[in-house]
Design brief:
The structure holds two protein chains of two kinds. By secondary structure, chain A is mainly beta. Chain A contains no helices and nine strands. Chain B has a domain of 138 residues: 3-Layer(aba) Sandwich (Peroxisomal Thiolase, Chain A, domain 1), CATH 3.40.47.10. In chain B, strand 5 and strand 6 form a beta hairpin. Classes of the chains: A mainly beta, B alpha/beta.
Chain lengths: 144, 389
């Protein structure tokens, strides 16, 4: 029986089969923000106050990557015991060209990626607390 | 910008260690300040104003340290100014103190920068108190990987920097790390923390303080006449940039390029590689040496690693970098920038002891902070006009 699943942060990404990051676009100047900007536009030359939600590109190229070889201190919750290092990638989105940092897909290590590789967004469980699976977005290498 | 010449006539620092539990915060800063005053042949009462700099208050959990440390620094009743620009703060502190002399506001200013990291939890503080932080190296590792990919640098370059700086530290009595047996092999065999940064390519966490006494042209010339060579500040500059904006490049930040361009222009430097004799730059993780050499226009883009690989940046090389052992060997975060600036001053004063660069006439000091966002730099010389206008 699959556990109840919730996004670890509400409103940052969809959880369907073709998941997207969710940003906001200023309706005055068109600048796209991720994480979402609300209230006022961060563009120094824009006085816009209205935003519309926008689904960001599902793919991008690896700008850089690293991993966390030692378990971060509390309140970090390790998914496994013993701790297994996780890898991160900074990905330049193919349409918006924002560089978004996220974990690499489960089972992927720094040896599996290089700068310039194409990746796509996936949603996977981060950890389970009290029967509830918390989901996050991750980057998965696209086979050539 | 018209201003009066400013001279460094006193430098003091503590012995940097993991835990300085033999002194309180007050004792720590007083140790450095006392040494600086002794070097300047001054007493506490001779100082007109104090500028104090340190990185986030969360490191020790003492808010408003400038108020708390007034007594320890003989500053009761005197103007006192706190500076905070993250990791670059030590450098900015020196610049702010110098400004107080250059503008004619005060004649003798004491600058103090410190960090007592053992009294708090540095990793927690670096994560702005939110915990679960990857640590500073975790944030910088992707920038280094991007640099390696762009430049094609061989992977040994990082370990070479780590070895060089620790070998230099063996010649600095104040340095924290004393790793006599360090080698490229031991660095590569040490645990990987955040790919590609190994444990032995990372800075220590140190308790330490640094202090500098600044005075005006009259005071500097008097010291010189008395046989105590001052370091003249030829130029200084600071720049900062946000962490995210269109076109942001943390590998070669615009702020880094702009800060260097400004400071070289003020100093009359048109060829930094040739006209600067040595440099103390903020390298807490190995790969930042080639990255800063490029971003600060000393090496052509993509070639900074060649200066490291060829031995140019070694103590005996053509462009020595971090003769003191640098941040890789001692890192009391708030003090580290002022230590870089001070070590540059000691070089041109001929007071760097075993890690002295022979005949150093013009030296560069640099510090950076946050996610490669804040920069402070200065150029010092034992002459007010080293390039002969």
């Amino acid at each position: 029986m699959p556990a109840t699943q919730v996004p670890a942060i509400a409103g940052w990404f969809t959880t369907d089969d073709q998941p997207h990051l969710l940003g906001t676009r200023c309706t005055t100047c068109g600048t796209v923000f991720f994480p979402r900007a609300e209230g006022f536009c961060r563009n120094p030359s824009c006085r816009g106050r209205e935003f519309e939600e926008t689904a960001l590109a599902r793919t991008g190229t690896v700008w850089s990557y690293t991993d966390a070889q030692y378990q971060p201190p509390p309140p970090y919750v390790a998914a496994t015991d013993p701790y297994v290092p996780f890898a991160l990638a900074a990905v330049e989105l193919s349409d918006e060209h924002l560089v978004v940092l996220g974990q690499l897909a489960d089972g992927t290590t720094v040896d599996d990626v290089k700068v310039g590789d194409t990746v796509e967004l996936v949603v996977e469980p981060l950890y389970e607390i009290d029967g509830v699976e918390h989901l996050i977005y991750r980057w998965k290498k696209v086979s050539a | 910008m018209a201003h009066q010449p400013c001279a460094v006539v006193g430098v003091g620092q503590t012995h940097h260690k993991t835990r300085r539990w033999d002194v309180s915060l007050g004792g720590l800063v007083r140790e450095a300040a006392g040494r600086a005053l002794e070097d300047a042949q001054m007493d506490w009462k001779d100082i007109d104003a104090v500028v104090i700099g340190k990185a986030p208050d969360l490191f020790e959990g003492v808010m408003k340290p400038e108020l708390y440390l007034t007594d320890a620094l003989g500053a009761a009743g005197k103007p006192m100014f706190r500076v905070h620009t993250a990791g670059s703060v030590g450098g900015t502190t020196g610049i702010v103190a110098a400004h107080h002399v250059e503008t004619g506001r005060h004649k003798r200013v004491l600058a103090v920068a410190y960090q007592k990291q053992s009294e708090g939890n540095a990793q927690f503080a670096l994560g702005s108190g939110r915990g679960a932080s990857l640590g500073a190296g975790g944030a910088f590792a992707p920038y280094m990987r991007a640099y390696i990919a762009r430049s094609g640098a061989p992977m040994d370059v990082g370990p070479m920097v780590a070895v060089k700086d620790r070998q230099n530290a063996m010649k600095n009595p104040y340095a924290h790390l004393k790793l006599a047996d360090i080698s490229i092999d031991t660095v590569k065999a040490s645990p990987m923390l955040w790919d590609p940064i190994h444990y032995l390519e990372s800075c220590p966490s140190s308790d330490g303080a640094c202090a500098v006494v600044f005075t005006d042209e009259e005071g500097g010339k008097a010291a010189e006449k008395a046989g105590r060579q001052p370091a003249w500040i030829l130029a200084s500059a600071v720049r900062s940039e946000p962490s995210q904006f269109p076109g942001r490049d943390p590998v070669r930040p615009q702020g880094a390029v702009d800060c260097a361009t400004d400071v070289y222009k003020q100093a009359g430097i048109t060829n930094p590689r040739e006209q600067i004799d040595c440099a103390e730059i903020y390298v807490p993780f190995s790969w930042l040496e080639p990255m800063w050499l490029e971003a600060h226009l000393i090496a052509e883009e993509g070639t900074g690693w060649k200066m490291t690989e060829s031995g140019d940046t070694a103590l005996g090389g053509s462009f020595p970098v971090n003769m003191s052992g640098g941040v890789l060997s001692s890192n009391p975060i708030g003090a580290s920038g002022l230590l870089r600036f001070s070590e540059a001053a000691l070089q041109v004063r001929g007071m760097a002891g075993e890690h002295q660069v022979d005949g150093a006439k013009v030296a560069l000091g640099q510090a950076y902070g946050a996610a490669n966002q804040y920069f402070s730099m200065w150029v010092v010389s034992n002459s007010l006009d080293p390039f002969g206008k």
